[in-house]
Known about the structure:
The chain is an alpha/beta fold. It is built from nine helices and seven strands, in the order αααβαβαββαβααβαβ. The protein has helices at 3-15, 21-26, 28-39, 57-64, 79-89, 127-136, 153-160, 182-192, 211-223, and strands at residues 46-51, 68-74, 92-95, 110-116, 137-148, 196-202, 230-236. It has a seven-stranded mixed beta sheet, with helices on both faces. The protein starts with a helix and ends with a strand. The relative contact order is 0.14.
Amino acid sequence: MTSLQNKIIDKVRESGVKEGEDYFSFHQRRFEHLFELLDKQEESKRNLLEVGFGFLHSLIAAHYLGYQNLFGIDIDINENILNKVNKKFNFILKQCDLAKDKIPFETSFFNFVLLTETLEHFNFHPRRAINELYRVLKPGGRLIITTPNLFRLNNRIKFCLRKSIYDDIKKEEIIHYREYSSKEIKYLLREAGFKNIKINYIDFGYPDRNKLNKLVNKIFGFFFPGLRPNILAIAIK
C-alpha cells in the first residue's frame, strides 16, 4: 500500500463504529483496492452515491480522499451509525428499498455510484435497480460494482463435488441470494443503457481461506483470470 492508502485505512478505522470493525478487517484488501480506484479518478470528485452503505467505510474514505457531497442509500439505517459517525461527516443518508422504491434523488445528479458487495444480496431481479442507478448518474458518470464471481474456481470445485455454491438452505438467514457471471453483469448494464463497460477479475484474498486454497487460486487465477473469486465492473453512462 502507498502512504496515502495507509493513511486512509487508518482514518476509516478511527472513524468507524465498533460493530463494523470485524467486517472492515475481513474486507480490508477489497477496500484498499476500492480506495485506490477512487483516488485515481480524474473526474470532479463530487456527488458520490453508495448503494448499501453499511458501516459507512467507503463514504468515510471518499471524504478523506477529497470527495464532496457524499450520499448513501440502504434498506435499513442503523441509528447507532448515525449517532456515532454521521454527525462528524454529515453524509446525506436515506432509506430505500430498491425492490420497490425509486432512488430518492434527481435524475442525472451523481458523478459516481458505488455498488460494492451488494448486488449478490438482492433477493429480487436486479434489472430495475440497475436502471435506477443509470437514471441518477450524470452523462459520463461512473458506476463501480464489485461482486463475487459465479464462475470462480472454488464454485467450480463445489459443483464437481455436487455441493451447493450458496448458503446452506437449513440456515435461517440466506446471505447471498444470487451470484453473477461477468456475462450476466454486462447484460444488465447494457440493457440499462451503459455503453462503456470494463470487467476485471480480482482476488481480494479474503482471510477465511487456508494457505492451500489461496495458493491454488493464485496459480489458476494467473493462467485463467476468469476463475478469480471476484468481479470488478466499471460502467460509464
